[in-house]
Amino acid sequence: MAFSRRSMLWIIPGATIAVPLGTLLLPEGARAAPVNAENGVAVRGTDVVAYFTDGRPTAGRAEFAHQWQGATWLFASAAHRDLFAADPERYAPAYGGFCAFAVSEGYTAPIDPNAWRIVDGRLYLNYDLSVGRRWAEDIPGRIARANENWPRLSAQ
């Protein structure tokens, strides 16, 4: 199909307007949630699959990296990377890897990979071990409040 110069005068401005408007019409869940990533690396470089398979945080390695949600996720092995790539929602921490206690209080904060807990198959991270203990005093209440706060916090 050939376009004349005149038709191009209509197509270019139309596309310029349509593309930004189209992104506004995406469903709420279609936008990527923010990820707590220092220098672009999620969860301070910790292999999130290891929490589930090994029961402990394990440092990831750059050779086993995977890009997801605008961040680089590091893994201790190719097997862990591949598990994550196949089902990232299963292994990614709640609230984009921000401190679960902080999100329950209505703000975001960084995490210590050693302050963690898996609840009902979901990984939760906290600022440090002390904050993790405070979070653990009312896990159901903290999760409920964080779930209420996260849509607002993730949209900021």
TrEMBL record:
A Pfam family this protein belongs to?
YHS
The protein's superkingdom reads Bacteria
Domain YHS: residue ranges: 49-94
Name of protein: YHS domain-containing protein
